[in-house]
Design a protein that fits this description.
Blueprint (H helix, E strand, L loop, with lengths): L1 H6 L4 H17 L4 H16 L5 H18 L4 H15 L2 H14 L4 H13 L3 H14 L4 H13 L3 H14 L4 H13 L3 H15 L3 H13 L6
Helix pairs in contact: 2-3, 3-4, 3-5, 4-5, 5-6, 5-7, 7-8, 7-9, 8-9, 9-10, 9-11, 10-11, 11-12, 11-13, 12-13
């Protein structure tokens, strides 16, 4: 429970503290499937956030998720983790679909699974199909900043820029220190032709969680769109 608490903070420090707690849980009970599942997705994010080489983090994450499924094949969360890790690093799309389908069959109202699956669909060219799934996640948990940012991202990819921006703003209202929401607001402003507001928003994201490679990448893109190509 402590690991999940820190993991949901979606910050560099939070992930590091989450990893420590999940590993302690496994030490206390090596047969505890959920601890392996959470450790797996934590490894993956440590790689995505630049705290571990991705060629190390994602295989470790995959191994942990497979260990969880070996202990309990009916664990929807483990199928979800394996789907997300496979999509992020291995690009085996049939395998990704198989594990998301299994996760949703086991737990059709899991907000995180719905959000991740919607994100996957949108980023593989199926944004229109993804929108109602992301909306369902927000209906199930209307105070989740993560669900809001996912819906906003899906709407942006569907070229519904104003609708997406509103979702990012709602996410920021739920958590004013949610760095990703600030960065995505910056992207939305950039897409709408408002470069100065885009630069200011992504700068705030960097101030909140500056070590994340994805935020650095957002900043580079937004600065370029603003004509500040040297920066």
């Amino acid at each position: 429970l402590r690991g999940r608490f820190y993991w949901l903070k979606d910050s560099v420090e939070g992930l590091q503290r989450a990893q420590d707690n999940f590993q302690k849980a496994i030490e206390l009970d090596p047969s505890y499937a959920r601890a392996y599942r959470w450790l797996g997705v934590t490894y993956a994010l440590l790689g995505s956030y630049g705290l571990m080489p991705i060629a190390k983090s994602h295989p470790l994450g995959r191994d942990a998720a497979l260990k969880a499924l070996k202990l309990d094949e009916s664990l929807a969360e483990a199928h979800r983790s394996l789907a997300a890790i496979t999509a992020d690093y291995y690009w085996d799309w049939p395998e990704v679909e198989r594990h998301y389908a299994r996760a949703l069959a086991l737990d059709p109202n899991d907000v995180t699974t719905l959000s991740l699956y919607a994100f996957h669909l949108a980023y593989t060219g199926r944004a229109t199909e993804a929108v109602p799934i992301a909306e369902q996640a927000c209906r199930l948990d209307p105070v989740s900043p993560n669900a809001r940012t996912t819906l906003g991202s899906v709407l942006q990819l569907a070229r519904r820029y104003d609708d997406g921006l509103r979702q990012f703003e709602e996410a920021m209202e739920l958590d004013a220190n949610f760095a990703l929401a600030h960065a995505l607001i910056g992207m939305a402003y950039s897409n709408k032709g408002m470069p100065d507001r885009g630069v200011a928003a992504v700068q705030r994201a960097r101030e909140l969680d500056g070590a994340r490679p994805d935020l650095v990448a957002f900043q580079g893109y937004i600065l370029a769109r603003a004509g500040r190509k040297d920066e």
